[in-house]
Specification:
Largest sheet: 2 strands, antiparallel
Radius of gyration: 20 Å
Helix content: over 70%
Number of strands: 2
Oligomer: single chain
Order of helices and strands: EHHHHHHHEH
């Protein structure tokens, strides 16, 4: 929750951060962790401040964001588990809301979050690629939806509060899950291609080094 005057810069940050996570999340995983830690911390901290306290919301968002970023960056393996848990919760929410008018039960969200965390720890490289690609795609969509609401942005008073709904940015619009899926798959393919070339290049260098030593 932030004043409406901050909606445009935050939307641009979401778009840039989402694109980075979607297409380079594995290579820049610590940066991505810091970004999502900052966003999560800022959302949680600013939500406890009253909507009339503009400066309080901004200060709380900055302080909570810095705390969240530091927490995820230094807790690397915990961050991997949290990324998997977050992706599992997001998938559960999207799948449920496509067939049911209400939010999913807490047990479904918790179960999918735990499953995502376990899988993330077992298959770290691939889960990091998939999780960052799809999380980045969703973040990019959040930014696009926020920046497209220019009419509301201009009409709102700077003292009004802007609330970001990270799990439901466009109620009733069926294209959002489809766009998220296609963008996430594109990001996954791009990351797998880049990391595959780098891995092959390292193997080639090691092989050449062994041949030289054998001579």
């Amino acid at each position: 929750m932030l004043p409406h005057g901050y909606e445009l810069p935050v939307a641009i940050l979401l778009i840039l951060g989402g694109a980075t996570a979607c297409f380079a999340g594995y290579r820049l995983f610590r940066i991505v962790l810091g970004l999502y830690g900052f966003l999560l911390g800022a959302m949680l901290a600013s939500s406890i401040i009253g909507v009339t306290n503009t400066m309080g919301m901004v200060v709380a968002a900055l302080a909570g964001g810095l705390a969240g970023a530091l927490l995820l960056v230094f807790a690397y393996f915990v961050g991997i588990a949290l990324v998997g848990a977050g992706l599992g919760a997001l998938v559960a929410h999207l799948a449920w809301t496509q067939t049911q008018p209400s939010d999913p039960p807490a047990l479904v969200i918790i179960g999918m979050a735990v499953l995502g965390a376990v899988v993330a720890m077992l298959l770290q490289r691939y889960v990091i690629i998939v999780a960052t690609a799809f999380a980045g795609a969703w973040t990019l969509i959040l930014g696009v939806m926020a920046i497209s609401d220019l009419t509301a942005l201009r009409a709102a008073s700077p003292s009004d509060a802007w609330i970001l709904y990270p799990l439901d940015p466009a109620p009733g619009q069926k294209w959002v899950p489809i766009g998220w899926l296609l963008l996430g798959l594109a990001g996954t393919a791009a990351q797998l291609a880049v990391t595959g070339r780098r891995k092959g290049s390292r193997k080639g260098k090691r092989k050449a080094r062994r041949e030289m030593q054998a001579r």
